[in-house]
Design a protein that fits this description.
- The protein has helices spanning about 15-35, 45-50, 55-60, 80-90, 130-150, 160-170, 180-185, 190, 195-200, 210-220, 230-250, 285, 300, 315-325, 350-360, 375-385, 395-400, 415-425, and strands spanning about 35-40, 45, 65, 70-75, 95-105, 120-125, 155-160, 260, 275-280, 290-295, 310-315, 340, 365, 390, 400-405, 410-415.
- It is α+β, with helices and mostly antiparallel strands.
- The strands form three sheets. An eight-stranded mixed β-sheet has the order 1-5-6-11-10-9-7-8, with helices on both faces. Strands 13-12-14-15-16 form a five-stranded mixed β-sheet, with helices on both faces.
- Strand 12, helix 15 (about 350-360) and strand 13 form a beta-alpha-beta unit.
- It is elongated and about 90 Å long.
Length: about 425
């Protein structure tokens, strides 16, 4: 019987893994430049924790199971809740708390382009900083991370849930129906305006104001519209959005990446105010490569002290796929590494000795064990993307001068071991 990988998962071959690693290290560098420290959480948590404030749709996507002692557990579907659990347990942590993570998560949903059942997220969580100052920093981290990774075409769509909930209340949606209404609105980009209108119509007795609500939802300039009849909390949301735009303009110089969009609500129920998504021109599921928002109630809700919190996450697979669609050069850049080619089996161990010396200097070195003719080995090494080939034979051993072939320019010269190390300095494993 031939086995296949589980549906919604992927295998990554060496070149793909190296591409991912370089993208991840670029992300890590930005996170750490802003002072965030890495945390790693268990792959599974108590199911009650994961479902506490996830939202009905996400709860259905959790990989849940009973362990051998009968405890109800689930694979984490995102990292915000596990990190909130850490903070609730460790009330001694000095504030503000600045954590980052780069880890896999799991969701049982229909696999499609840009959406797997096992995927990786890279994100930050900032706890202990309330309001616009914290939100602006986290958005700045997200924008600069995407830029550092190589993404050039994206826009951050920003909203405040207090505003949309105020508008829903004005349109006649009851408090009990709010979560369902938000889930319907979250599908606007995927299913269109008619789907949202139909879904909301089913939630109200009087549909008089729903047309006006849809106008607010789809406006290209929502801050220019009037908001008579909205409550105090919703108006606070509007003012907060204005302040956020100013902060990201005057403080960070990043306002050109922002777009106010009242249709952004995010699918998780723990968000309390600001929400946002980084979208690319690709549209659909693959078009959104990152998102986040503020969740001031989550830590207290799971047993910790009251603490303001905000965070964001980037989808690694979506980001890499978007980079490729943007027709960027290969993430790995130019040719890399060295192949050591022994002239015959007699010189295999001599080639290994040279390779070990190169590896001591963090130089990517591979010994050719194929026994092919030198011309064939050089041709294959060129196709495999090696930068250099070092030929080791009788003449090289006797003279102490190795033959170094530049596979990019297809020229060669004789070099000593010391000269070889200098020539190969750009073939290190360091990023």
């Amino acid at each position: 019987m031939q086995f296949e990988r589980p549906r919604g998962t992927r295998d990554y071959l060496p070149e793909e893994c190296e591409e991912r690693r370089i993208v991840i290290e670029r992300i890590r560098r930005v996170f750490e430049n802003y002072g965030y420290g890495e945390v790693i959480t268990p792959a599974f948590e108590h199911l009650e924790l994961l479902t506490a404030k996830a939202g009905e749709e996400v709860v259905d996507q959790i990989y849940a199971f009973n362990d051998k002692a009968g405890r109800k557990l689930g694979l984490r579907f995102e990292l915000t809740t596990p990190i909130a659990r850490i903070v609730a347990e460790r009330i001694d942590l000095p504030k503000p708390i600045k954590f980052y993570y780069i880890q896999p998560v799991w969701r049982y949903e229909e696999p499609q382009r840009g959406r797997l059942r096992e995927f990786w997220q890279a994100g930050v969580e900032l706890m202990g900083v309330s309001g616009v100052p914290g939100d602006a920093e986290v958005i700045a981290v997200m924008i600069n991370t995407l830029r550092r990774a190589g993404l050039s075409k994206f826009t951050v769509h920003v909203n405040d849930r207090r505003v949309i909930q105020g508008l829903l209340d004005w349109a006649g949606i009851s408090y009990e129906q709010m979560p369902l209404a938000l889930r319907i609105i979250d599908k606007l980009e995927k299913y269109g305006v008619e789907y949202v209108e139909k879904g909301l119509n089913a939630l109200v007795k009087d549909t008089t104001r729903l047309k006006g609500f849809i106008e607010y939802l789809t406006s290209n300039d929502p801050l220019s519209m009037t908001y008579e009849g909205l409550g105090h909390t919703a108006k606070q949301g509007i003012e907060s959005l204005r302040e956020l735009l100013d902060e990201l303009d005057e403080g960070y110089g990043l306002s050109s990446y922002l777009k106010l969009d009242f249709s952004i609500v995010r699918g998780l129920d723990y968000y309390t105010s600001l929400v946002y998504e980084a979208k690319t021109p690709l549209g659909g599921e693959i078009g959104s490569v990152a998102g986040g928002g503020r969740y001031d109630d989550l830590v207290q809700m799971i047993g910790g002290p009251p603490i303001p919190a905000t965070g964001m996450a980037i989808g690694i697979e979506r980001l890499i796929e978007t980079l490729k669609v943007e027709s960027k050069p290969k993430v790995l850049g130019n040719r890399r590494g060295v192949i050591l080619i022994p002239v015959s089996e007699e010189f295999r161990r001599a080639a290994i000795t040279v390779a070990e010396k190169l590896r001591d200097h963090d130089i990517i070195s591979v010994v050719d064990f194929s026994g092919r003719r030198i011309a064939s080995s050089l041709e294959i090494a060129d196709k495999q993307g090696y930068r250099y080939a070092v030929i080791v034979g009788k003449r090289e051993i006797e003279s102490g001068q190795l033959t170094l072939r530049d596979l990019d320019r297809w020229v060669e010269k004789k070099v000593s071991m010391e000269q070889l190390l200098k020539e190969l300095a750009n073939c290190t494993t360091l990023i």
